[in-house]
Design a protein that fits this description.
Blueprint: E1 5-10, E2 16-21, E3 27-32, E4 37-43, E5 50-55, E6 61-66, E7 72-76, E8 82-85, E9 120-126, E10 134-135, E11 139-146, E12 152-157, E13 160-162, E14 166-171, E15 173-177, E16 180-183, E17 187-191, E18 197-199, E19 204-207, E20 214-216, E21 222-224, E22 230-236, E23 241-243, E24 246-256, E25 261-271, E26 277-279, E27 285-288, E28 295-297, E29 303-306, E30 310-312, E31 315-317, E32 322-324, E33 327-336, E34 342-352, H1 354-366, H2 374-387, H3 391-408, H4 415-432
Parallel strand pairs: 10-17, 19-25, 27-34
Antiparallel strand pairs: 1-2, 2-3, 3-4, 5-6, 6-7, 7-8, 9-11, 11-13, 12-15, 14-17, 15-16, 18-21, 20-23, 22-24, 24-25, 26-29, 28-32, 29-30, 31-33, 33-34
Helix pairs in contact: 1-2, 1-4, 2-3, 3-4
């Protein structure tokens, strides 16, 4: 209180305020701006009547002027010791003024601060950075040299642009100031903007081995890169994978050490050219005709299996249950898979007509001895008429045979003999259309 500040100054870091006072002890107060409290006080026995103050740029010294004189006094901020530069030539110890100099109306200014640190050098590198410290575009190198304390002399900085692939172009920079010489760490630029070259396998064709396709192995893709080298090369799906039936385009990628990549393609085709396998093809069939058109014949269908499609139902023609004409007919059974591979097998159906059936009838009646030669004679007559193309006469002989068999059954023919002869005779008459 009652100090009447005459001069004010702020420390270099902005945290401390210094003031000089005209009245009271004619001293200097030190104020902490963080707490806004007085943390120190310096009493001036001299110069007395302080009028103003100023602080050096680095904050190490305070300059105090004296009213109505040309005196300037220097106070060290580190320990508040001071020296005085006075016009009366007097010297004073601590708490007074030491080292009085000058005799005029103005004091000698303090010497400039010395430079104790060398320049600071920073490199600026612009370009597209890839992998492993490699650049994948043109690269520009420039340098920034600074020293806030003294002028820079003898700068020797090499910058420039790297526009071609290189395993290492070195840029250097050094500079000198009052504080000494700085030699910057060299900057090495590695540039590789060229993708690797690659060779992919030829297209592959494989045979399916099951419903899921086939395991396919193919040669490896190869790649080369003369600058940063090849880092990786591979194809997807990998060799040894299972490929489904059909065609697939595989993509191969090669990447160099700088991160440049190139791609290529080839195809893998899994095809099905293996026909199904037929099993259980019926044996040849022989039946007697049951009507003029022949006979209805049924048979058991074969089975078929396919390595890709599994079980397949074959198709046979003529189909089972069809009417087969008198004579021999070939039945063809075919199994076809989804890839249209087909396997076929055949068997025959033979339908015997009236002529061979009459031969069977002759053997049957000749085997019975009861009626004598009467029954065989009628059958022989029917065979002769049929051979001559006289169907009606043949039918007439057979009808006469039926009447005699009916009359002799239970007498010279057993019931079983009569039934078998009657059945075969009626079947032959049906074949003849009677």
């Amino acid at each position: 209180t009652d100090q009447r500040p005459r001069g004010i100054g702020l420390s270099a870091d902005g945290k401390t305020l210094y003031t000089v006072h005209l009245t009271g002890n004619q001293g200097m107060s030190i104020i902490d701006l963080a707490t806004n409290t007085v943390v120190g006080y310096k009493t001036f026995q001299h110069p007395g009547n302080p009028s103003n103050l100023a602080i050096t740029g680095d904050g190490s010294e305070i300059y105090v002027t004296r009213a109505n004189s040309g005196d300037v006094f220097i106070v060290e901020t580190a320990d508040l010791s001071y020296v005085a530069r006075s016009t009366n030539g007097q010297s004073y110890g601590f708490g007074k003024f030491a080292g009085a100099v000058g005799s005029g109306s103005a004091s000698t200014p303090p010497p400039p601060p010395s430079d104790s640190t060398p320049p600071v050098i920073a490199a600026t590198v612009s370009g597209t950075l890839g992998s492993n410290g490699w650049y994948t575009s043109n690269v520009t190198v420039s340098w920034t040299v600074t020293d806030p304390e003294s002028a820079i002399t003898s700068p020797a900085c090499a910058g420039g642009t790297v526009s071609s692939d290189t395993a290492g172009t070195i840029f250097t920079c050094s500079a000198t100031s009052g504080g000494g010489t700085t030699v910057a760490a060299p900057v090495t630029i590695k540039r590789d903007a060229t993708p690797p070259s690659m060779s992919v396998p030829a297209s592959v064709v494989a045979e399916a081995t099951g419903p899921s396709g086939a395991v396919v192995n193919y040669p490896a893709a190869t790649a080369s890169d003369s600058v940063s080298g090849v880092a990786t090369v591979g194809c997807v799906p990998a060799s040894g994978s299972t490929f489904a039936p059909g065609s697939m385009i595989l993509t191969c990628t090669a990447t160099d050490g700088a991160g440049n990549s190139t791609t290529g393609t080839f195809s893998v085709t899994v095809r099905d050219t293996t026909p199904p396998v037929l099993s259980g093809v019926p044996a040849n069939v022989t039946v007697n005709a049951t009507m003029t058109a022949g006979a209805v014949v049924t048979y058991t269908l074969p089975t078929a299996s396919d390595v890709v499609g599994g079980a397949i139902v074959p198709v046979c023609a003529p189909a089972s249950g069809s009417t087969f004409g008198v004579g021999t007919t070939t039945v063809t059974c075919t199994a076809t898979d989804a890839a249209l591979n087909a396997t076929s097998a055949t068997f025959t159906v033979t339908v015997r007509g009236a002529s061979p059936m009459l031969a069977d009838l002759l053997a049957l009646v000749s085997a019975v001895s009861g009626p004598g030669n009467s029954l065989p004679a009628k059958v022989q007559a029917a065979r002769a008429s049929l051979a001559a193309g006289n169907t009606a006469s043949a039918a007439s002989s057979l009808q006469a045979l039926l009447r005699e068999v009916s009359a002799q059954t239970g007498k010279k023919l057993t019931a079983a003999q009569g039934a078998s002869i009657t059945a075969l005779t009626k079947q032959i008459l049906a074949v003849l259309g009677y």
